[in-house]
Design goal:
By secondary structure, the chain is of the alpha/beta class. It contains 7 helices and 11 strands. The chain has a single domain, classed as Glucose Oxidase, domain 1, CATH 3.50.30. The relative contact order is 0.22.
Length: 216
């Protein structure tokens, strides 16, 4: 039985979100939605942007993840609440190939993965709290299409997930379009500020920080 669900309407701005940085989007979202610093890309240069497909993963078990790969729609990001269990790698090269074939955009987990070099060679984006060579059992079936909580951030199906070298930020689906627009505007203003700095202005003056220091 096909349990896939369609991507939300917000998928239409997937490419526009992918052009934004996590830091800019986090600021545009009033500094909300950032996962902890422990969630990092497993290799340099990894980026992801897509609608969240969340699931919980029992420690030391990865049956639910196998099932999620075939339930998640193309373009989505698997977001795994692994209960911060780091002593097993429930996702590795074989599953990365399977996810890539399915068109999944990437994976975010509060746990560990393994086969880092092989996954990096595939170009599949994975953000995790750890790496572990240890394997898993396949016993606990998935309970999909439910919200999860990672680092105090509640993540619902369809929320927007953006990841880059700085980390991961999650934007609630109902705010995603507005936050994107704010991020685009913020990025344009930051480009202007950089040009002013290169022209000789001080950040203290540009932002009116009220410094009493001598001006150049």
């Amino acid at each position: 039985m096909n349990t896939s669900v369609p991507l939300p309407a917000g998928a239409r701005f997937a490419e526009a979100y992918a052009e934004q940085s996590v830091a800019t989007v986090h600021e545009a979202a009033s500094r909300t939605g950032a996962l902890s610093h422990a969630v990092k890309p497993i290799a340099p240069g990894m980026k992801l942007s897509g609608a969240a497909f969340p699931l919980r993963l029992s420690p030391g078990d990865n049956l639910a993840l196998h099932e999620a790969i075939y339930a998640a729609p193309a373009g989505s990001v698997l977001v795994i609440d692994a209960f911060d269990y780091l002593e097993a790698g429930p996702f590795g090269e074989i599953m990365a190939v399977a996810a890539q074939v399915r068109g999944i955009a990437g994976l975010v987990t509060s746990g560990s993965v393994r086969d880092r070099d092989a996954i990096a060679a595939l170009g599949f984006a994975v953000f995790a709290k750890g790496l572990s060579v240890k394997g898993t059992v396949k016993e606990v079936p998935a309970r999909l299409h439910r919200a999860v909580i990672i680092d105090g951030i509640e993540i619902h199906p369809g929320d927007w997930v953006l990841g880059d070298s700085d980390g991961v930020v999650v934007i609630a689906q109902q705010r995603a379009e507005a936050v994107l627009q704010h991020a685009i505007e913020r990025e344009a203003k930051e480009r202007q500020v950089i040009e002013r700095i290169r022209a000789g202005e001080r950040t203290l003056d540009i932002y009116d920080f009220g410094s009493t220091g001598d001006k150049p």
